[in-house]
Design goal:
By secondary structure, the chain is of the alpha/beta class. The strands form 2 sheets. A 6-stranded mixed β-sheet has the order 1-2-7-8-6-3. Strands 4-5 form a two-stranded antiparallel ribbon. A hairpin with a 2-residue loop joins strand 4 and strand 5. Helix 1 packs across helix 2, helix 3 packs across helix 5 and helix 5 packs antiparallel against helix 6. Keywords: Signal.
């Protein structure tokens, strides 16, 4: 029987997406961590917490607040892990936030990161669809405005692309275009509604 640590490592091989972040001494950094399938099956939250150790903290669904704003991803809990390699991540059934890495970010960027990871729970591995899920949620729930959209673009544009992530500037333009469609009520945004509003409505 595989231990939680072994299962986590096997899942990591299947899931880890690395990208360089400019301005960080040239060191390759993980954009995010999303389980993408494979024979290991992905860890349960109990296995993940066992692997993380005492630094990990499970926050039950409905209890997480980001800068005083209550957030949820259906009934999925969130693990706060200050030693996580990236800002956020997702495995089937739970989300991960690195409280250390997101600490200096604006509220709207933090909410984007959380919502992007939530999006993976409903739309799967597509990074673009997870980005758009987050933007639609921000507009629908009222926490995303034009200033926040530019903050997200500033944040994401630093990231280089990799095998699964488009380059940051490209992601920015895709999200910015979708944001404009949403706030202007264009037909394109309306036709996307069924794709990008999957998931919890509150």
């Amino acid at each position: 029987m595989l231990s939680g640590r072994v299962i986590f490592r096997l899942a990591a091989v299947a899931a880890l997406a690395l990208a360089g972040l400019s301005g960080l001494n040239g060191t390759a950094r993980a954009q995010e961590f999303v389980y993408r399938g494979g024979s290991a099956g992905g860890p349960t939250i109990e296995q993940y917490l066992e692997q993380v150790g005492p630094s990990g903290q499970e926050i039950p669904h409905g209890s997480l607040k980001i800068d005083g704003i209550r957030v949820n991803c259906g009934t999925r809990p969130t693990v706060l892990n200050p030693n996580f390699d990236s800002w956020g991540g997702a495995f089937p059934g739970f989300l991960i936030l690195n409280t250390t890495k997101i600490a200096g970010l604006s509220t709207q960027v933090k909410l984007y990161i959380y919502s992007h990871e939530c999006g993976h729970q409903f739309i799967g591995a597509s990074e673009t669809k997870a980005d758009l899920f987050a933007i639609r949620r921000g507009v629908k729930w009222g926490w995303l405005d034009a200033q926040g959209m530019e903050q997200i673009c500033t944040f994401i544009s630093q990231l280089k692309g990799d095998a699964v992530h488009p380059p940051g500037p490209q992601r920015c333009e895709t999200m910015r275009t979708y944001y404009r469609q949403l706030v202007n009520g264009t037909q394109n945004a309306k036709s996307d509604r069924g794709v990008f509003t999957l998931g919890p409505s509150n």
